[in-house]
Amino acid sequence: MTASNCLNDFDSNPYVIFRPYNIHAHDKIRDIVYNAVHCSARKLYDIHIDSLEQIHSHIPSQDINEFRLEAYKQINDSNISELLYLIQAPILGELLGSDLAIQKSVNLSIVPPNDLSSTIPFHSDINTGESLYELVSWIPFTDCSGSNSIFLA
Question: What is the DSSP string of the chain?
């Protein structure tokens, strides 16, 4: 999807699906996430995780949040905010203009297969005090299909 088509589609569908505009920045983001996961697994459990798809095979469900928070800290100690902007800049400019702010920390979600405790019901970020004018970006780093995806309303 081009940035010029984005605004028209956004009026009828409150989401946009697009490929990153800066592949180099996307690859760096992926590397930051993978490195944080690997370092957290080594630090907390002295194990090596080969892929994000296999986290659930190595980390018990009851420890996922502790693991997520450790990886979250490492991710947010990087320059990830700048990189996130680079992969979305044309779309962000088209949707929001040039006067932008980004939250201080980005989130990391880890949802193991068949873990109902990690599944959240339909929600809207505005109900938790977020701005009505907030734009949320979701960047999957695993294959997504069926129940291994995000629900958009």
Answer: --HHHHHHHHHHSS------S-HHHHHHHHHHHHHHHHHHHHHHHS-----GGGHHHHS-GGGHHHHHHHHHHHHHTTTHHHHHHHHHHHHHHHHH-S-----SS-------TT-GGG---S--GGGGT--TT-------SS--BTTBS----
What tokens does 9 get? 């589609």
- How far is residue 87's CA from residue 89's CA, in Å, rounded to a whole number? 6
33-60: pLDDT as tens digits: 999 999 999 999 999 998 888 898 999 8
What is the C-alpha to C-alpha distance for residues 68 and 107, in angstroms, rounded to an integer?
A: 9
| pLDDT, mean of residues 104-125 | 76
Q: 83 is written with which tokens?
A: 């990189």
Contact yes or no for 37/108 (Cβ under 8 A): no
